[in-house]
């Protein structure tokens, strides 16, 4: 008589785990990316950007002041994205 076969252990899905982890981190840090892009564009073209109001920023004959203002203010979105990301990253795998 043959002994019963040993149970086969299922491998942990590391690829899926890392993809989900990277998605969580990217969504959480996206507001930082928008602020960095805003600051880089504004500084490279000599424009003023703050959270108080829209300032004109002429680049190539077009005014990008509102776009830069929006990118800068999106940094506040981190108050919404960061806490859930910290919670999701702290869950046991």
The gist of it:
This protein has 3 helices and 2 strands.
Helical content, roughly?
Answer: 55-70%
Radius of gyration: 23 Å
Number of strands: 2
Distance between the termini: 40 Å
Shape: rod-shaped
Oligomer state equals single chain
Mean pLDDT: 92
Question: Describe the biggest sheet?
Answer: 2 strands, antiparallel
- In which order are the strands of the major sheet placed? 1-2
| Tally of individual helices | 3
* Low-pLDDT ranges: none
Helix/strand-derived category reads mainly alpha
Query: What is the H/E string?
Result: HEEHH
Q: Per DSSP, what share of the residues sits in E-state strands of 2 or more residues?
A: under 5%
Keywords:
3 helices; about 5% strand; about 90 residues; 2 strands; rod-shaped; about 55% helix; mainly alpha; two-stranded antiparallel ribbon
Question: How would you describe this structure to a colleague?
Answer:
With 93 residues, the protein is mainly α. The chain has a domain at 32-86. The chain has helices at 14-44, 65-73, 78-90, and strands at 58-59, 62-63. A hairpin with a 2-residue loop joins strand 1 and strand 2. It is rod-shaped. The mean pLDDT is 92.
Topology:
Blueprint: H1 14-44, E1 58-59, E2 62-63, H2 65-73, H3 78-90
Antiparallel strand pairs: 1-2
Helix pairs in contact: 1-2, 1-3
């Amino acid at each position: 008589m043959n002994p019963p076969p040993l149970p086969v252990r299922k491998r942990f899905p590391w690829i899926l785990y890392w993809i989900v982890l990277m998605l969580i981190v990217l969504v959480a840090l996206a507001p930082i990316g928008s602020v960095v892009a805003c600051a880089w564009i504004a500084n490279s073209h000599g424009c003023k950007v703050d959270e108080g109001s829209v300032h004109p920023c002429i680049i190539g004959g077009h005014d990008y002041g509102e776009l830069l203002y929006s990118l800068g203010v999106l940094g506040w979105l981190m108050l919404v994205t960061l806490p859930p990301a910290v919670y999701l990253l702290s869950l046991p795998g």
